[in-house]
Predict the structure.
Amino acid sequence: MAHKFSFYNTLSRTIEEFIPNEEGKVSMYTCGPTVYHFAHIGNIRTYIMQDALIKALEYCGYDVKRVMNITDVGHLSSDADTGEDKMLAGAKREHKTVMEIADFYTKAFFKDFDAVGNKRPEVIEPATNCIPEFIHMVEVLLEKGYAYVAGGNVYFDTSKLQDYYVFSSAIEKEQLAVGVRDDVEEDTAKKNKTDFVLWFTKSKFEDQALKWDSPWGVGYPGWHIECSCISMKHLGEYIDIHCGGVDNIFPHHTNEIAQSESYLGHRWCKYWFHSNHLNDRAGKMSKSKGAVLTVSVLQEKGYDPLVYRFFCLQSHYRKPLEFSFEVLDNTVTAYNNLVKKVEALIAADEKIKAAADQNKEDIAAVLEVIRNSQDIDENVKKEFEEKFADAISNDLNTSMAVTLLYDILKADTNAATKLAVVDSFDKVLSLDLIGHALADDSADIDPELEAFIKDAIERRAAAKKAKDFTTADAIRDELLAKGVEIKDTREGVKWSLV
Ligand SMILES: [Zn+2]
């Protein structure tokens, strides 16, 4: 029996108890990245919170299958986008073909996606793999009278629906209707302002790069159709949870529902999970603002990607989160303190310490010893695991989950129990505290060498300050000769044994 699980369903605008279509199983769809540019840390926040949701569901006893698309065709964030094909713009900017661009940014996306501890979806499908499926869905929508051809394009006819703005309250519907009227560039082929393109043959962009044959002429699919088709291809006619950022609610998810349910003739997805924006001091993070702050950039600046994950987990997914380097620096301190505490716990348990000394490189072997320790107080462990399940199943309260992590470290119980609970929580938090504690050499270093290192780092800092780079470099070499490598990071100089 799975643990009771509730979260906010954007469709009903309430926190609902989650009841999947099939007991114990969850089919989940995630809108994937558009691969003409880097995904910024705000995009990655969305994927971290989705990862927490999946792992929380698994922790509570559900079996989750997740599908994600890769938008590697065109283009648009909405039909209102003007200007040029973004994939083509990327290709021109970087002197590459569009498919090279898509491949490059797909790899860059997954590098950052993986680095923050996310589990990859079971199915990842590029849109360009599914052109026949898109064409089929458009054909059926035309047959059923939900779509029409005009000016060379195929449009979805929103006037055929009882309720197009499914996510919105009455007041929001008014505002959206006004917004649509004001924002959208006049497309005279549309019957209704909210109609959207299913298949383009008349590109707004003169040199649209990727085109395919279709019954309506050579062209390319609209953006929304991707997610409906790819979801149905792998998850069937009913899905449990559809995820995305709040940006996707309108028009993307609204349009996905319109076309999917018209195509299927029945309800499609029960629960809609949306995470909020990451802002910087200047406002919402955006791809179009020039220099893009990515997880890789954070790494280059010396930040551990899991520290960024820790930062995200301490805030609720439905609230906007403000990013600053000051806050991230505080998170580094907090994270390092947690690692030190875990190190001390490892040192405090003789058997675990022996395993850690023997298996420096093999975290799995040490985790085995922790999990099978005879000294674990099972009652305490169970009590904490239940509290943890209650927190994460209560609208994904990750900050409460982090509080429980601090609580177990302070709890009145032995080291083996604490480590077993930290390991258990990490199934969802994925902060790898135990792995970091094992990798940290500073705990069992000879105190004399440690004093020498500290002194050398201070001497080097003084030399650098005096612009005496020859001495600074010499000190670095001196350390290296003793097997100590130093790195300059935002949080100061870090050293490790090599
Ligand atoms: Zn989507």
